[in-house]
Amino acid sequence: MNPQIRFSLAIAGPLSRCHEIEGTPSPKAPFARLVSHTEPSHISLADLAAELIKPPAPFKIEETPRRVRGLFNKEYIFDTTHARHVWEKPYYPLYYIPRDAIKAELLTVDDRDPVAPGVSQAFVTCERKKLTRVLVFDKGPLKGLARFEMDDLGM
After folding, report:
1. What pLDDT score was predicted for residue 34?
2. Closest Cα to residue 144, out of 101, 112, 110, 113?
3. CA–CA separation, 38 vs 20, rounded Å?
4. pLDDT tens-digit profile of 65-102?
5. What is the CATH number of the domain that holds 65?
6. Domain assignment of residue 29, given as a range
7. Which positions ≥6 away from 146 have C-beta within 8 Å?
8. Same structural domain for residues 85 and 139?
9. Each residue's pLDDT tens digit, 107-152
10. Going by DSSP bridges, is the β-strand pair 107-110/75-80 parallel, antiparallel, or unpaired?
C-alpha cells in the first residue's frame, strides 16, 4: 500500500496563493504532482494592514544585498539594492521596498484616510494602468517601506 501525499505550501504572503501537492510515490513516479489552486486571494487592504501591524508580525526584518526591480506596464517603478526581506508569516519572506526608491512621479499615497494606524494605501499609475494594492508604512518597524503584491509586478 502506497501512502498518499497531500499537503499545502503557502507562497508569498498571507492568503495570497496556495499550492497543493498530491500524489502516490512509486518506483515509476517518485515525485508528487503539483496542483495549483487559488484561495480568496485578495483580502481587504484594511484587514491585511491590521494583520501586519499587530504583534508578533512582522516576525523578522532583514536587509538584502540583492538588486530588486519592479516592472509594471513596461516601466520600472523601482530599482533598489536597499529592499528588505520581511517575514509576514514565520515561514516565508517578502520583499518590501523603501518608499524613496519608488519613482515619485508614479506613486500617489492616500494619507487622508489610513487603512490602519500608521499605514496608508498607495497607488502606482503607469500610462492608463494602476496598481491599487500598495501599502505604505509610516510608523513602527516597517516605517518608510512599501508593500506591493508581487503577482502584479514583473520582478
Report:
1. 33
2. 101
3. 10
4. 899 999 999 999 999 999 999 998 888 899 999 999 99
5. 2.170.150.40
6. 1-41
7. 96, 97, 98, 99, 102, 122, 134, 135, 136, 137
8. yes
9. 999 988 899 999 999 999 998 899 999 999 999 899 999 999 888 8
10. unpaired
Q: What are the beta bridge partners of residue 84?
A: 63, 96
Shared domain for 30 and 48, answered yes or no, is no
Cell numbers placing 34: 503539483
The C-alpha atoms of residue 7 and residue 9 are separated, in whole angstroms, by 7
- Specify whether 74 is located in the same domain as 33: no
pLDDT at 15: 37
Domain co-membership, 26 together with 54: no
Answer with the residue of higher pLDDT: 2 or 117: 117
One domain for residues 8 and 37: yes
Q: Which residues pair with 109 in a beta bridge?
A: 122
User: Which amino acid is residue 72, in one-letter code?
Assistant: F
Both 67 and 130 in one domain: the answer is: yes
**150 and 72 Cβ atoms separated by less than 8 Å:** no
